[in-house]
């Protein structure tokens, strides 16, 4: 390449990669580098408090023929981090970070191209729980007419709500805690909520593991 | 580094064309390629823990190009075949043997492995993003004609300085701006609220440290350092300010020729990425390998060889 050709190439190169930043594209290998950049303005945060033992057991599953079983990451043959996301996020209706921030604070031009070329906001339209159930049945090779097909997945998780004053003072041990049980079925998902009292810690976890 | 070229009037021309000597591009390719073995090698081992002949998981949210190609199922045997090919291609690239085909193989295998890893649950990680433009720059450059097996066997003439300089300078621009865009992204969607009090950093520390729960001793199961740090919002705020300043001013490094200042930047970036890993399990810890593009790696290579006694010391003039 001559120097002139190199300059033309560089112009195109940076127009494409930095243009993606301007247009807020986040489709690999283009990115506006948002990673952990999104913080919602709320006076509190809600955080999932996991239970490694419980998660390792897996989803409590119910077959169409009434049989109960546990489905863990080994049954589904998937890496632990991905299973954690399915168990602790998708089962409770939480999408991946890309979906959560994709349409946040878009300027009109970017909103226009997202709505025209990509479509509706996935954070509002996606049904993560139904996708999860469909994926589990497909992985296990269970069709819609199979009596062994999974008709319900159950996940247990505690959610701690930290108020802004707790965060500002660094006193994180006494948040409000809610236990949620997600019952994912092909007819929809029900979340059963129970308020728990007491400090955040192993006692709460033991109750979950019971 | 080359001197100012008197025939180049434009500052942009001098910025891109008058910076490195011909051989530097090959030396950077060599160290970047070795670094890629570590960096990409650390990204996909979880796929090798699966049963190669076990169930084929149906992806819940396939990455966009898998969606386009109709790939919706994980074939667990594939990573066992694709992963070694990727690492071998990185070595071919590093040692300058079939360099350009090796780059294409790295790109294809990386897209493939990334697609597999990220399609299970739909979280698309950003770890491979900077690698792609850097490899594209290597692909269109003459990096295969210096400092490698093919170049030595074919006895190719060393390329001109400007031919080595522009791809490396373009890489530097991309790398420095990647951090700067991260700051812009924070300000675009969250404003200064991102930094207020413990800010988003404190939130992430809490989310990451409690996601596996608590042990019987009352401590979190994993990332206990993050849990302790989250309880000290003033210190977290201080780290947030450091991140803000680092991401704001890093583009200035593009105009600094002093290698010691560049080394300070490298130490800063390395500390940042290793802290992110130790505190939040953000797996960017080998990412600082991209900073080889900021140094005259021919000199670094000579220095390393001398340190390793691979090259006799030049006797001091009497």
Keywords, separated by commas or semicolons:
heterodimer; A: 210 residues; alpha+beta; B: 318 residues; mainly alpha; 13 helices; 58% helix
Please render the helix and strand layout as text.
The complex is a heterodimer of chains A (210) and B (318).
Chain A: H1 3-22, E1 44-49, H2 52-57, E2 59-63, E3 68-71, H3 73-76, H4 80-88, H5 97-101, H6 108-118, H7 122-125, H8 128-139, E4 150-163, H9 164-169, E5 176-185, E6 188-196, H10 202-209
Chain B: H1 11-17, H2 22-41, H3 64-69, H4 78-95, H5 99-119, H6 131-140, H7 149-153, H8 161-189, H9 199-210, H10 224-230, H11 233-249, H12 259-280, H13 297-307
Helix pairs in contact in B: 2-4, 2-8, 4-5, 5-6, 6-8, 8-11, 9-10
Structural features, described:
The complex is a heterodimer of chains A (210) and B (318). Chain A has 210 residues and is of the alpha+beta class. Chain A is built from ten helices and six strands. Chain A has helices at residues 3-22, 52-57, 73-76, 80-88, 97-101, 108-118, 122-125, 128-139, 164-169, 202-209, and strands at 44-49, 59-63, 68-71, 150-163, 176-185, 188-196. Chain A starts with a helix and ends with a helix. With 318 residues, chain B is mainly alpha-helical. Helices cover 58% and strands 0% of the residues of chain B. In chain B, α9 (199-210) packs antiparallel against α10 (224-230). Chains A and B meet through α1, β1, α3, α4 and α5 of A and α1, α5, α6, α8 and α9 of B.
Short summary of the structure?
The complex is a heterodimer of chains A (210) and B (318). Chain A has 210 residues and is α+β, with helices and mostly antiparallel strands.
């Amino acid at each position: 390449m001559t120097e002139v050709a190199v300059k033309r190439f560089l112009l195109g190169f940076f127009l494409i990669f930095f243009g993606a930043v301007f247009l807020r594209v986040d489709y690999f290998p283009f990115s506006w580098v948002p990673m952990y950049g999104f913080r919602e303005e709320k006076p509190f945060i809600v955080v999932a408090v996991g239970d490694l033992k419980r998660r390792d057991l897996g989803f409590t599953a119910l077959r169409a023929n009434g049989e109960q079983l546990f489905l863990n990451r080994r049954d589904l043959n998937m890496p632990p981090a991905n299973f954690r996301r399915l168990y602790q996020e998708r089962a409770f209706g939480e999408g991946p970070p890309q979906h959560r921030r994709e349409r946040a604070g878009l300027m009109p031009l970017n909103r226009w191209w997202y709505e025209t070329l990509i479509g509706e906001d996935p954070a509002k339209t996606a049904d993560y729980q139904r996708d999860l159930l469909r994926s589990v049945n497909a992985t296990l090779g269970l069709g819609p007419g199979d009596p062994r097909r999974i008709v319900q997945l159950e996940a247990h998780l505690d959610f701690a709500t930290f108020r802004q004053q707790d965060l500002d003072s660094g006193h994180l041990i006494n948040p409000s805690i809610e236990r949620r049980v997600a019952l994912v079925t092909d007819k929809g998902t029900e979340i059963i909520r129970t308020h728990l009292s007491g400090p955040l810690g192993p006692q709460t976890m033991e109750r979950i593991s019971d | 580094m080359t001197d100012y070229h008197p025939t180049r009037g434009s500052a942009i021309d001098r910025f891109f064309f008058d910076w490195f000597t011909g051989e530097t591009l090959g030396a950077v390719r060599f160290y970047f390629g070795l670094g890629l073995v570590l960096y990409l090698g650390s990204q996909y081992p979880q796929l090798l823990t699966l049963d190669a002949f076990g169930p084929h998981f149906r992806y819940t949210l396939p990455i966009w190009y898998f969606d386009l190609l109709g790939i919706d199922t994980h074939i667990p045997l594939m990573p066992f075949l694709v992963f070694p090919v990727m690492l071998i291609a990185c070595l071919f690239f590093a040692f300058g043997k079939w360099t350009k085909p090796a780059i294409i193989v790295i790109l294809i295998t990386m897209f493939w492995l990334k697609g597999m890893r990220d399609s299970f649950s739909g979280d698309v990680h950003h770890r491979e993003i900077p690698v792609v433009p850097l490899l594209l720059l290597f692909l269109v450059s003459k990096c295969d004609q210096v400092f490698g097996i093919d170049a030595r066997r074919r006895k190719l003439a060393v390329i001109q300085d400007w031919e080595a300089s522009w791809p490396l300078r373009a890489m530097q621009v991309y790398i420095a701006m990647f951090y700067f865009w991260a700051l812009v992204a924070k300000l675009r969607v969250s404003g200064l609220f991102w930094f207020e009090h413990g800010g988003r950093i404190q939130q992430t520390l809490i989310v990451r440290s409690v996601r596996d729960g608590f042990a019987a001793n009352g401590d979190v199961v994993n990332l206990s350092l993050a849990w302790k740090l989250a309880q000290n919002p003033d210190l977290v705020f201080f780290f947030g300010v450091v991140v803000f300043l680092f991401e704001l001013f890093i583009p200035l490094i593009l105009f600094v020729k002093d290698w010691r200042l560049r080394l300070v930047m490298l130490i800063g970036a390395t500390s940042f990425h290793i802290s992110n890993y130790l505190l939040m399990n953000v797996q960017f810890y080998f990412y600082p390998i991209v900073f080889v593009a900021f140094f005259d790696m021919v000199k670094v290579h000579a220095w390393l060889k001398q340190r390793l006694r691979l090259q006799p010391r030049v006797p001091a003039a009497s």
